[in-house]
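Researcher: I'd like a candidate sequence for this fold, 326 residues long. If you have to choose between options at a position, lean toward the conservative one.
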């Protein structure tokens, strides 16, 4: 089980950090993937824009290879059992630990005028998303590890108080190191909120992709053989490793080591390889967002699968708590 907050369109970091793993998991596990629209409300977004983002992120999930017939792909607010379980789990969450959560402190700093209770209990809602399906594996990045640990704590307390209902969920990835997708300005990784020109979106058109890459930071080149690479250069090689052929990468690595690399050529090549990678995803996303009927069907099918799993869990939860009076 995993979720993506629809705070904007998806970028290359979302693809390699999350979606690619989802697609791989759908062949091996019983999967629930969700667009976390309720979580987004904690920051009071313009809901007209939110509506557009939800549909778009849903389409991007499919365009990246998720098959709505094989997984439950749904929108969080379509599964009201989420809110019900959130209420029960709120009784397992303590004020002190919620206030100490890194993401809460960060958000409280960013929006001091809107430190609402939903923001405080964000990790409880996330725990509800996960254990609603009694899920065990949660494909997420490093930034979500604290939330996962909190989910395990809520679950342990629930099980201890009312009896074993939930397995303990944990972060999951495919063994390899978590892939970080470097931003084009050499400062950290691609992200929705940082420098827009340093992030490649799955919706960028061909010329935008080429021009963002063309403008990526370089320098006058190495001066000594096999010199260590500065961050912004190793970032470009990092991106190449994601989308370019092996012999292409090898050629530029060798050129670098021999101090004959031409960054203009490298960026041109990377631009073309990136276009070849992103264009089909963008085109498929566009086709899906324009097909209202299909998108509606997908969301309904996903909601129905998720609700039937959720209702099974909620029966167990209410029995365990003792809310079955007759
Ligand atoms: N908090 C996650 C994020 O910001 C999104 C999310 C919501 C999520 N519910 C989830 C992730 C359940 C995994 C499982 O990225």
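Model: Candidate sequence:
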């Amino acid at each position: 089980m995993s979720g993506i907050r629809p705070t904007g369109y998806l970028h290359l970091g979302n693809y390699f950090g999350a979606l690619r793993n989802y697609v791989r998991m759908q062949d091996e596990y019983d999967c629930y993937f969700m667009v976390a629209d309720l979580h987004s409300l904690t920051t009071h977004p313009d809901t007209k824009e939110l509506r557009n983002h939800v549909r778009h992120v849903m389409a991007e999930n499919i365009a990246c290879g998720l098959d709505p017939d094989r997984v439950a792909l749904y929108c969080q607010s379509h599964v009201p059992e989420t809110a019900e379980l959130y209420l029960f789990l709120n009784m397992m969450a303590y004020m002190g630990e919620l206030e100490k959560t890194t993401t809460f402190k960060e958000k409280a700093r960013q929006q001091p005028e809107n430190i609402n209770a939903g923001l405080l209990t964000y990790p409880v809602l996330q725990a509800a998303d996960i254990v609603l399906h009694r899920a065990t594996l949660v494909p997420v990045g490093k930034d979500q590890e604290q939330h996962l640990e909190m989910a395990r704590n809520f679950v342990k307390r629930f099980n201890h108080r009312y009896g074993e209902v939930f397995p303990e969920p944990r972060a999951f990835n495919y063994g390899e190191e978590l892939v970080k997708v470097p931003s084009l300005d050499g400062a950290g990784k691609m992200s929705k909120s940082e420098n827009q020109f340093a992030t490649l979106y799955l919706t960028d058109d061909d010329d935008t992709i080429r021009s963002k890459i063309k403008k990526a930071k370089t320098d006058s080149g190495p001066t000594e053989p096999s010199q260590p690479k500065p961050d912004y250069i190793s970032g470009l090689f990092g991106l190449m490793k994601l989308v370019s052929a092996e012999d292409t990468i090898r050629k530029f690595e060798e050129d670098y080591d021999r101090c004959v690399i031409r960054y203009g050529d490298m960026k041109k090549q990377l631009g073309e390889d990136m276009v070849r990678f992103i264009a089909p995803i963008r085109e498929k996303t566009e086709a899906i967002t324009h097909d209202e009927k299909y998108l509606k069907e997908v969301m309904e099918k996903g909601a129905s699968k998720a609700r039937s799993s959720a209702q099974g869990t909620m029966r167990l939860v209410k029995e365990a708590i003792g809310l079955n009076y007759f």
